[in-house]
Design goal:
The complex is a heterodimer of chains A (about 425) and B (about 400). Chain A is built from 17 helices and 14 strands. Chain A is α/β, with parallel strands linked by helices and about 425 residues long. Chain A has 3 domains: about 150 residues, no CATH class; about 110 residues, Nitrogenase molybdenum iron protein domain (Rossmann fold); about 80 residues, Rossmann fold (3-Layer(aba) Sandwich), CATH 3.40.50. In chain A, helix 10 links the parallel strand 8 and strand 9. Chain A is globular and about 65 Å long. Chain B has about 400 residues and is of the alpha/beta class. Chain B has 3 domains: about 120 residues, Rossmann fold, CATH 3.40.50.1980; about 100 residues, Nitrogenase molybdenum iron protein domain (Rossmann fold, 3-Layer(aba) Sandwich), CATH 3.40.50.1980; about 110 residues, Rossmann fold. Chain B contains 15 helices and 15 strands. In chain B, helix 13 links the parallel strand 11 and strand 12. The model of chain B has no long low-confidence stretch (mean pLDDT about 95). The chains are: A alpha/beta (about 425), B alpha/beta (about 400). The interface between A and B is large, with 55 and 60 residues. Strand 3 of chain A pairs antiparallel with strand 1 of chain B, so a sheet runs across the interface. Chain B: GO terms for molecular function: oxidoreductase activity.
Chain lengths: ~425, ~400
């Protein structure tokens, strides 16, 4: 009988001390020469400012608090206009992009953003002032903040008539490594592969608007890609991270077809991944492995990979099963009922820490609940993509197998926030 | 007051203070928010969270629930969790969105209490006020609900401590030192509200001979004890040596004559040489130590949170936003500053004042909360060695 106890339902939520991911700030900071101002009740910005200090990016961010009287009087827009105007007038050099982040209450106040955007963009034409959203109240809707921020970022690309032999990777926080089989293949065929993190200036960043194709590597950027297709005329392929050999190969084929380049023979890459899996499995020597959905957006795909390659998978911590993973989820329920599937954010998880120090845990939250110091400290799949991504995951697992951490300190240093 | 901040984080909000006040008491605390407010508290304002097992939950409020005013969803979720988790009480905390839509927390709490049989509170925390206000309201509600009603015969040499949260006192050292200092003076601590205590002790706290208010958030509670149980209070902390003795004397006097007393400055203000920034009662107590034990004059205690006139002298200062703090640090002419390490960011390049780091969790959160600096008794002189102790 399956040990799956989760219903993936929304009840009172428990937020474990190890829960967290990239903040909206961190995503948006990838825009070169940008500056962020958060506007809202002071409370909303506390974690933003403190986590920015931890990450040492707080010199590019400030906050403007609103009082109850500002909400009641409706002077909110004028307050923003006055303060941003004053701030921009004093900044040297001025940022190329000034992002005004509003919070949950903005959704209920009916703010007219044009009241401040229009005059600010007229007065400071060299600084593009835009509104972004940090409004988790939209969490279960179609456009939560982690999705809208991707759109806000790429809306900054100007439409270009020029089309270069280049593709963009969007949605992945960290760039895929150079040794990835698809990246290598694209480069061999004369394509540049672009990622926002490679740009130091806003002007250089604009070259992403001249690429022929967006590779959407995470569900977070799918909405942005659709908007880019409308706005900048850049087509996209939705190829999120997968730990399935078949899906990886299918994705490679789709890219080659779309770009009209010769197919990539994945045999070598696949063999290397198989080899890495086998070596790491031996290295772990039956050690239990647990993983969580902050480490990967595709926990069931990763779990499927590990189970089909002989790893001793103990627990999957996941708050949801996205449609893309339903097949793997069902397979695990049917074929591996011994695997625990646990929803980590339910109130019932309070006090459910185990003390199983022998586990190797992929992700901070898994390590917290399992109570193990052996952690693969990754978030949101990190640079893992394709067959080389599997090799990278295996390398990390093998390395961390022999290492242990003070988890509390590790979480603190990670700069991850709820 | 300028509403923009470039260097400092926002200080801990009211819901963090309220949650912190109730954290150790076995209740279920539900923050009615989408997740960010709960993350603020658990991730940045609660040093006990990592190893603690207190029931602090997020209601998972969503836009449609807010627009439709669907309180039943919140009530249903709380009742279901309460049935499983058996809390001693239930506390609902507001956040900015419920503030805007005018959620009736008192009414919701009443309904939850009726349907579950568990004592329930609704707090109108907004995220627009500071932690000391939230903690004060939570403490007061706690005592009103759980302190044993009716007159009581005070037990000799018994004291309650009012206003303890880690947002002012860190975890561990300071509270233990405070207990120890009072016990050495022969005082028996009945309730240490609310660190290292429980609801039973709060119930029996009405037997105390006197209350010691250790932070501003304990003052409203102290007034209530005075009004309802005729227990007098003293405001202050035993910081230093002679200054601590002064406080202990005040405790004895108040226990004797039933009058309230506040540890305050014995000197006129102005011409500030030394500026202490932080929580009002803590700053006042450190100031008294510097005056009495070190012989310093011109010491300003600057409250940086919610101004409380009852605890301020006529020329006491407060600086409650980044702009005011920056102005005070750079234009007061002070030569010594005691304050949170983050305040160093506000010092002008030509400001040569000597800076003594005194981390305040309600300001700098986990950036420094492991660097607790001791202040009780002589311990303060381990980090203020240059003040010329007599």
């Amino acid at each position: 009988m399956s040990k799956c106890t989760c219903q993936f339902e929304t009840i009172l939520q428990y937020s474990s001390p190890a829960r967290g991911g990239w903040s909206i700030v961190r995503y948006a900071m990838q825009v070169p020469e940008s500056y962020q101002l958060f506007v809202g009740p002071a409370a909303c910005m506390r974690h933003i400012m403190l986590s920015s200090m931890e990450l040492k990016i707080d010199h590019r961010i400030s906050w403007l608090f609103i009082k109850e009287s500002d909400i009641v009087s409706g002077s909110y827009e004028q307050l923003i206009l006055k303060n941003v105007d004053e701030l921009l007038s004093q900044m040297t050099p001025r940022p190329k992009v000034f992002m005004i982040f509003t919070t949950c209450i903005d959704n209920l106040l009916g703010t007219d953003h044009d009241v401040f955007l229009k005059p600010l963009n007229e007065k400071y034409p060299d600084t593009k002032t835009i509104v972004c959203f940090m409004n988790p109240i939209t969490g279960e809707g179609p456009t939560p903040p982690a999705i809208t921020i991707q759109d806000s970022i790429y809306s900054l690309l100007k439409k270009s008539e020029v089309r270069e032999r280049a593709v963009n990777c969007i949605g992945n926080h960290l760039p895929i490594r150079e040794d990835n089989e698809l990246i290598c293949h694209l480069k061999q065929h004369g394509f540049q592969v672009r990622h926002i993190s490679q740009y130091q200036s806003f002007e250089q960043f604009q070259e992403m608007g001249q690429s022929v194709l967006n590779l959407v590597l995470s569900p977070l950027a799918l909405y942005a890609a659709k908007q880019m297709k409308k706005r900048q005329g850049i087509d996209y392929l939705y190829l999120p991270v997968s730990y399935s050999f078949a899906e990886i190969e299918k994705g490679i084929q789709l890219v080659c077809d779309r770009l009209d380049i010769e197919p990539l023979d994945p045999t070598d890459a696949r063999r290397q991944a198989e080899q890495a899996l086998e070596e790491t499995r031996k290295e772990l020597n039956g050690r239990p492995v647990s993983l969580d959905y902050e480490a990967t957006y595709h926990p069931f795909s990763m779990a499927h990979l590990l189970l089909t390659h002989g790893f001793h998978l103990d627990t999957i911590f996941s708050g949801e099963c996205i449609p893309q993973e339903q097949r793997e989820f069902d397979w695990i329920l049917e074929r591996h009922p011994e695997v625990n599937i646990v929803q980590p954010d339910q109130y019932t998880m309070l006090g459910k820490r185990r003390n199983e120090e022998d586990h190797l845990c992929i992700g901070f939250e898994a390590a917290y609940y399992i109570g193990s110091p052996h952690v693969v400290p990754v978030a949101a799949d990190a640079e893992q993509y394709g067959f080389s991504g599997i090799c990278l995951l295996m390398k990390r697992m093998a390395e961390e197998n022999a290492r242990s951490y003070d988890l509390e300190q590790l979480v603190k240093d990670s700069g991850l926030v709820v | 007051m300028k509403q923009i901040s470039l260097q400092l984080p926002p200080f801990a909000p009211d819901y963090s203070g309220a949650c912190s006040a109730l954290f150790e008491l076995g209740g279920m605390i539900v923050i009615h928010d989408a997740c960010g407010c709960t993350g603020n508290y658990t991730g940045f304002d609660e040093p006990r969270w990592y190893d603690g097992e207190s029931q602090v939950y997020c209601s998972a409020l969503r836009q449609m629930d807010a627009i439709m005013g669907d309180d039943e969803k919140l009530i249903g979720r709380v009742l279901r969790a309460a049935e499983d988790m058996h809390p001693k009480f239930i506390a609902l905390m507001g956040s900015p969105v419920p503030t805007v839509i005018g959620t009736d927390f008192a009414g919701i709490a009443e309904e939850i209490q009726q349907r579950s049989g568990i004592p329930a509170f609704g707090f109108l925390t907004t995220g627009l006020r500071l932690y000391d206000v939230g903690a004060s309201e939570a403490f007061l509600a706690l005592v009103k609900r759980f302190a044993r009603p009716g007159a009581s015969e005070p037990k000799a040499k018994t004291v309650n401590l009012l206003g303890l949260t880690p947002l002012d006192f860190y975890v561990g050292g300071t509270v233990k030192a405070l207990h120890s200092a009072l016990e050495q003076q022969g005082w028996n601590i009945l309730a240490s509200i609310a660190m290292d205590t429980d609801l039973e002790k709060i119930r029996d706290s009405v037997d105390a001979q006197i209350n010691l208010v250790v932070s501003q958030s304990g003052l409203a509670m102290a007034e209530y004890y005075k009004d309802m149980y005729n227990i007098p209070y003293v405001v202050g902390l035993p910081v230093g040596s002679e200054a601590a003795d002064e406080l202990f004397s005040m405790l004895e006097q108040s226990a004797e004559d039933g009058q309230n007393r506040i540890l305050s400055s014995g000197h006129g203000q102005g011409n500030y040489q030394t500026v202490i920034l932080g929580e009002r009662v803590i700053c006042n107590s450190i100031r008294r130590c510097l005056e009495v034990d070190c012989g310093l004059e011109g010491v300003a205690a600057v409250g940086i949170f919610s101004p409380e006139p009852r605890l301020m002298g006529s020329d006491d200062l407060s600086a409650t936003c980044e702009d005011e703090i920056e102005t005070l640090l750079n234009e007061s002419g002070c030569t010594r500053i005691i304050g949170d390490p983050l305040f160093k960011r506000l010092l002008a390049n030509d400001n040569k004042a000597e800076f003594f780091e005194f981390p305040i969790p309600a300001v700098s959160s986990k950036l420094y909360w492991n660097q607790c600096v001791p202040i009780i008794g002589d311990q303060i002189f381990t980090w203020l060695p240059k003040m010329g102790r007599r």
